[in-house]
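Collaborator request log, item 7. Partner lab (contact: R.S.) asked for a structural prediction of Two component regulator propeller to inform their binding assays.
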Amino acid sequence: MRTFLLLIIAILQFSFITNGEKDKFKQDVVVIHSSEKGLPLGAIDKIQLYNNMPLVKASGAFFSWNGEEWAKAKNNQKEQSFSEFKNVPEGSGEILSEVTYKGETYIGCESGLFKKVARKKWKQILPADENYSWALKMVAALVVDSSGNLWFGSKEGIGKYTNGAWQLFTGKEGVPYTNFTCASSGPNGEVWFGTERGAIRAENDYFYYRSTRRWLPDNTINDIMVDNEGIAWIATNNGISQIISKEITYEEKAEFFTQLTEERHSRMGFICQNQLNKQFDIDSYQLAISDNDGQYTAMYGAAQAFRYAITGDKEAKEIADRSFNAVKWLVDITSVPGFPARVIIPVDWHEPVNEQYNKEYNKRHQKNDPFWKDIFPRFPLSEDGKYRWKCDTSSDELAGHYFYYGVYYDLVAETQEEKTAVKQVVANVTDHLIRHNFKLVDYDGKPTRWGSFDPDYFNSIWGWDQRGLNSMMMLSFLNVASHVTENPKYDEVAKMLRDEQNYHINAMHPKEFFPPENVVPWDNNLGLMSFYGLINYEKDPELLMMYRLSLEYAWLNISKQKNAFWDGLYGALANTFNKKVNEGYFNTNEMFKENPLFAQSVIDRYGKSSLDPKFIKETLQRIPLDLIGYEMDNTHRLDVQFDPTPAQEADMGWRVDSYALPIDERGHVRLDRDAFDLHDSEGNGYSEHEGTFYLLPYYFNKYHNLIPE
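Returned to partner:
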């Protein structure tokens, strides 16, 4: 973990770029302390400050932190003692917590909250506000914050006492969990609560939940101490979590993720997640491959292209150029003209890839998936014998490729040589699709598993559910090809598909919403990326209006997932449409003669974006610096509502505010996942994801002026 710790220290202590106070926000990072740093194995029972440094009790001994490691404490260091009351209220049960508030003693007990009013007398406190009135149970957390407010945590929820009035919080108000164990206050008004399933930070009446290995070595919290700098030291049943919240800028975070991606996620110019040989240890990483190397490389390249358009940074152009060449290489290496490979690996790659996908494997796989392609070898040899490339390419790859072709051509390609290279590869891939009746056709002469964009497939019982999305994508590919190559034949092919096969009508229903088994999150990703080329390069006002309507339908279904990339794509395209409306681009009196009211109704309803950009900002800020994939289970939370959709999986839902949980509390950080998944494992600590998932939405939204100040 040394590499990660050094990176954390760098981003917290040094500024890469000075952007001013307005761009700063708080970034939470965590350092896990275990036996490797000198702590004993097992539970940490107590933690406190001693000479402004943490002191813990574990295994019957005391250990102090010197800034680098833990060591047994000296004899003059001892645990702070708690008061012992002999005359406690009758029936109160065990005392669980204690605090002094405005010179008066309060105790939290199994059967209530009590205030000492005389030497042997106690008064039970029954907090109430406009929503609730409670007789408290299991008051295990009591604390006074730095502003002088009294807080408690009980079975019923959290309470805050300010100026003689209570404010009470339950799951409806955002409290994630209520089996409390302890509490501690910080220097800036924040309050930390420990529970039996994670830690909660209350800040400005909002509750941040920190649970599982992303934030804690164990979910059982025994004690919390917040030091003078606001760093939370959390004692658990398996070590200590040190959570630091420091101000950084968007650009500093981008610099961090670019460095991370370049150092640990670049393989011959291709970008994807890596594998960790030791759980949670990024120093044990090994470069990996994925089915979507091309798409992920294209998305990373697009991030750098938008960065270059904004800043003119030479490094951004170098990475964008490298990414384009890698994506183009996927097309150039195959034995089928215009057919893009999924992956390229050296011939001496450490995994026996063809043995893994042998004939027997294909037959077994077809029992569960009858359309699984039985092709061998799945990794053919390149013509020069130095590489292998993976076949059976999908629509996901094409969506990423075409998205990047247009972005790279418009924002990065400057020389005639660079522009010619884009024209060549776009023409090759598009001509392959046209030549094969709008299918991706493999080296065996048969279509790939997920590469059909043809009318016969859409009109079959096998492909009807994909016709909306794939029709829209095919029209997008043709628009990109027309824009980049300036060859009118691609407009003619698109017109043929509209006139003879109604592709533009299909495209108005760009995604299935039901039943749940037809709804997959990565379709949102490839669909919205395809909308970018479809709408930006469309020249027909009537088609543009139809596509704007389709965009709204596609986005509304995912508009509460807090996906900064999807939100940005929608916002940018909706704003483009709105600009055309304001410029008088649409003459509604001359459009849709068969229904003259349609055009104006679309402008009235969808002339402006319905995006709230504050969630873009929130997600960019809360994407964790640690991109290891962790298992996250949020199904126990009190602040979530389960999805009641018939046939929906049992662990799908959203926060009580109707939006997805924040990204740093979910089990994934990727841009192509379902944010409503309450229980997810993105590698279970054995993979680290690339920084694209911050870089692309950040630079994309900054380029399109969608990050509010």
